[in-house]
Records
---
Amino acid sequence: MRLARVRGNVVSSAKVASLSGFKLLFVQDIDPLEPSETDTAKGAGDVYVAIDLAGAGDNEIVLVTTGSAARVESAGQYAPTDAAVVGIVDIVNYNGRVTYVKR
């Protein structure tokens, strides 16, 4: 799994039926030591599209699963996706140091 921050969303009115009803999010991988809200954050990674299975909102830190694991959950098992938001993060505690607490 990856830690990422929700940066926005994608609206697609023409898509395969198995994606109907799912929100598509732009997410950006983050550095667990410095989960900053700015796009220019040190350690900020790739931006990519992920299917939202957790009800995430803008700027939230989320757990993203990729590859075949993105289709494990029953609601998304038939969706053609390689990235899925599967959780919303409350706290990041890295090496005994709290680096993020959800507001």
---
Amino acid sequence: MLVKLCDTLFSLYIRTRDKKQYGGCPFCGKPIDCAFHFFSRVNYATRWDEDNAVGSCVGCNMRMEYAPFPYYQWFKDNRGEAALEALNRKHNQIGKFSNSDLQEIAAKYRKLLESK
């Protein structure tokens, strides 16, 4: 339950943040309607990492699964190769969160959303 709450609040925050920054999907310009993760949400080490996500359209989010190269290239072009390598290293670590940790994550994104 707490993981789903954190996912929802994180997604809302990323979409709100990036609608202001990019206006639309940074890959194709369509409306932003989801949070795109460069590295899978499966690993909790980067699941709620703001560097690992960008607001995108559903189409680009779905295409990433089958053709990731253009999206990794976008990341390198916009954030740098060193940032991509650092995020990849972090993604390969084990991420474990207690209920208290998850409550803190949820509180952080609630607060950020309220301030937007």
---
Amino acid sequence: MKNLFSLIFVILLCAHATLCDLRFVFSFFRHGARQPTAIKGGIDEFGESWSNPGELTATGKRMHFLLGLRNRHYYKNFTTKSRIDGSVYVRSTDYNRTIESVQSQMQGFFPPGNAELIADEKTRANAHPFIDDPTNSGWEKFNDFLGMKTIKGRVETIPIHLFTQDNPFNQFFYVPYICKPYKGMSDANIKKEPIQNFMKKFKEDYGEKLMKMTGRSDTNFLDSYWYLFGLFDSFISDMYDGRELKKPQDFGIDLQEFNKTSFEFAQNDILIQFNGDDESFFARWSMSILLPEVIQWMENRIAADKSGNLGYSGYALPRFAFFSTHDVTVGSGLTVLSKAFGFPLYYTPFACDIFMELHHDDDGNYSVHIKYQSLTLGVVPFDEFKSKIQALLYTREQIAETCGWDMEELKYFLPGAINHH
């Protein structure tokens, strides 16, 4: 009876409050524009120089800062101005580009000037690292300049929790070939008709030009899928960075047409090479690590609402959860959502994102609104969302069995094990 009265209270309250419809938001997204990953000697095939392969560029930081601003505007009636009451929980893969991407996004999501203040004058007097250090005797003027602000501009700081590389179950982010049958899956996907037809046509259209541009004596190098991966990866990075790309133009390559071709290859790479195996094992492996936590957050939120607790606090009841990840991972998410609900598949460019919003209606029903790049893919009752997603997920034991791993060696990476996180 107590729970019934609590539920009635929540329903009545939500009927008069615009914020109650939206109860929780989960987002995972690709990092922003980066330097190419597959170049040698700091120069890509198009003659452009790069200093730090794979690192986020200024363009990539800008993309995620603007994404944070967009999200803040879109969720303006739901979010808070600062990280209080467990308002955000952030995860990232252990790559500089993903960590910096979500840092940039959070700077846009939380407006400066709203972070916490020093408690009082007594605290402020001790809030410095220079006690009894005569070499830093001038710290007082800077402390006075800050006033009660913890950081200049009252910029918010956000803890970022990592999917670490030492956990074998996270290797779909890093080296999926640790899973013994994965290379065979990838090789089989590359042999599929869409990819083979693309490679054949590309060689016909660009073989002679690229042979001359790269100084090769024949076009056989274009038969390598992984050479093409590096080629297009470099070109996309060049274009996002506004490079002049004089070298390919000197050899008669139209940049706009080549750009379209590059994105066609990239789409095939994400949706077919990585995620196109018949069982969608790679996609399901990825989502089996990511989505159980999301379902748990949603269940926690529903249970809290029904008990009359509408607040947000700590890890268990966040307002938002953000996962900073990669094109492949977003592609895996779209693949699993497509298998579960029949949603269409899309390419996953820099800074693309998937949202899963938990909503509540006046009748006490919960539903999940699933969006990609602000496009609503569908609205699914929570129970259906949970059951259809869980039907596609693997247990860690199943992943280990498929990959040929020894479960005894992996026992410390199972849920509930000491130091699991």
